[in-house]
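Changelog-adjacent note: as of this version, every example in the card shows the full chain rather than a window. The one below runs 323 residues end to end.
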Amino acid sequence: MQTNWPQLHANAFAAVRCLVTGGAGFIGSHIVDALLALGAKVTVIDDLSGGATQNLNLAARFVEGSILDEAAVDDAIAEAQLVFHQAAKVSVPASVADPVLYNRVNVDGTVMVLDAARRAGVKRFMFAASSSAYGDSTELPKIETMPPLAASPYAANKIAGEQILRAYASTYGIDTVSLRYFNIFGPRQNANSAYAGVIAAFAKKILAGQGPVITGDGSATRDFTFVHNAVHANLLAARHPQRFGGEMINIATGRATSVRQLAEAMARLLDRPDLHPQLAPARPGDVAHSLADLAKAERVLGYAPIVDFEAGLRATVEWYRDQ
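Full-length structure tokens:
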């Protein structure tokens, strides 16, 4: 799926120097592509532990290294005006299995990049926050004024990152904003990990002629959000005329879809409606229902989804089929 980024953002990023951490990963690589299409000068830092070389845009400067490596981060961030911090360990179940590693990368790594940004005089820092901050609260839709309730080490990492960004915005000259992503999906999402996102995992199973595996009874709902919506939100945040001061903003579509509905829709799109979901035990840290309130995103950013769920799912399924 092609999005006309110049039509949406004109010349707002022409010759602007940007750093994308995790720019060889799923969401990060899509941000890189959009920035380059808009004429930005882009540097990527990625250790390729979760990203892939085939996702790298050759028009970007690439620093291969960890966000925990101070020298690599300083090299990557030199002269940057904007930072899009996407590098992270991203699996809830994996965070339950290895909470110390997750804290090191997601919390210590965020501090490392943020402090390098402060020293480098970066204007604004966009953080990939997470709807997992809302935990297992039964209140719907999720609104940014709700108290954070971490239900997993991963969620705690992301909440910590938000608070660190707020502290830096309050204490130093750098401006920061946390974009709380709700179940981002799309091309390039890794289907080969044991902890793959649900859409990637379902695609792999169905294309192998097997029924997708649902953890729980399939009634759990998610606000599935196509990746170009997350990219658009990052670009809107980066060019926003006023300071954010560490605010948190939901980024989603504002629509709930059950995991069972998702599995059935994907089986139809892949011409295998005969493949019925298999049920497995629910996982620790998973939440029952998630749906975003988008009023703040609309009011503050002027954000509205640019790709709806059905169109995004069709494009994503076609990409997995082509792989």
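Structural remarks: The mean pLDDT is 96.
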